[in-house]
């Protein structure tokens, strides 16, 4: 998934890429403030605690707004990336990959 996000960011507008990078920096700073370690180095429980807080916008502080926006963006990219793969699209969703039907079956009601 990291490669997909890298490709999205490579062609993104500069302001979108900068906002994403601010979000990455923010999540590390917030992890340092809460757990005294970077987000990548903290344990799974602390990572989950921070992300759960960000996913529940109503419970987040105003200082968490950058993190809330970052979490929404990375969650959206992860979902879009996964469901554009063969595993996500075909195996999980059962999509045949056909973009159109040869024959319109019409309504039978």
Report on the structure:
The chain is mostly helical and 109 residues long. It is 63% helix and 0% strand. The protein has helices at residues 2-11, 14-35, 44-55, 65-82, 86-92.
Summarize it:
The chain contains 5 helices and no strands. It is mainly alpha-helical and 109 residues long.
Spell out the helices and strands N to C. Answer: HHHHH
Terminal CA distance: 43 Å
Largest sheet: none
What is the helical fraction, as a range of percent? 55-70%
Low-confidence stretches: none
Query: What gyration radius follows from the Cα positions, in whole Å?
Result: 19 Å
Work out the helix count. Answer: 5
Indicate the overall shape: elongated
Mean pLDDT across all amino acids: 84
> Structural class, from secondary structure content?
mainly alpha
Strand content: under 5%
Quick one: how many beta strands? 0
